[in-house]
Amino acid sequence: GDSVTQMEGPVTLSEEAFLTINCTYTATGYPSLFWYVQYPGEGLQLLLKATKADDKGSNKGFEATYRKETTSFHLEKGSVQVSDSAVYFCALRGSNFGNEKLTFGTGTRLTIIP
Amino acid sequence: GAVVSQHPSWVICKSGTSVKIECRSLDFQATTMFWYRQFPKQSLMLMATSNEGSKATYEQGVEKDKFLINHASLTLSTLTVTSAHPEDSSFYICSARGPGTGYNEQFFGPGTRLTVL
Asked: Do B5 and B96 form a contact (C-beta atoms < 8 A)?
């Protein structure tokens, strides 16, 4: 079945550091890929997405490129801020018609220190 | 827009009692709602999918008589954990989508932490 593997946390960085959170997936066909962010006390929010190979999703300075050859969707940000502290989830949705099911990674807790 | 709320945010109950968790879409009509369960340091696991006015579709391994889901209106779904036991302690999260959200995106509630003593 479908699965998502993302780097274990927690990750602690200084403000303005470069961020990479690795995510790889296993799925048949051409899934859609997502990054969700969960701030303390809030629900998961969609951060960015990509629906086909080589697509780049971007939002709030975060980027991730859908790499089919390496089955990866790594999250990057060039200069993190304290406000980026949150838990980040990589997820995929299968390519089968009518398949709404999201498969999540375990989440990576990110803490940015001033 | 597209806000989903859950109530309560946390609940503690005695073993053997039933607990109801509400999931509401505040500013859109949720034709489909999803219920997830999250164990510490593990990913969200989909428990069931419910369409308004229909019976929920449960994922393999989820006991439908244990986790009762009702989606009787376009803004409310409830999850009732019946005869709860300590192993049911977990973080329960709902999400919702509907015509106003573009169908492809799910909007998540903040979650409900259930502790069964």
From this structure: no
Separation CA B11–CA A110 (nearest Å): 27
Q: Which residue has the higher pLDDT, B80 or A29?
A: B80
- A89 shares contact with chain B (CB less than 8 Å): yes
Does pLDDT of B116 surpass 70? Answer: yes
pLDDT of residue B41 exceeding 80, the answer is no
Nearest in space to B76 (alpha carbons), one of B44, B103, B99, B109: B109
The string of DSSP codes covering A70-84 is TTB--EEESS--GGG
pLDDT per position as a tens digit, B83-106:
999 999 999 999 998 886 665 688
Determine the pLDDT at residue A96: 67
The reply to whether A7 touches chain B by the CB within 8 Å rule is: no
Cβ pair A57, A50 in contact under 8 A: yes
Residue of B44, B107, B111 lying closest to A104 (CB–CB) = B44
Q: How many other C-beta atoms are found inside a 10 Å radius of the C-beta of residue B43?
A: 20
Residue pair A48/A35 in contact (Cβ under 8 Å)? The answer is yes
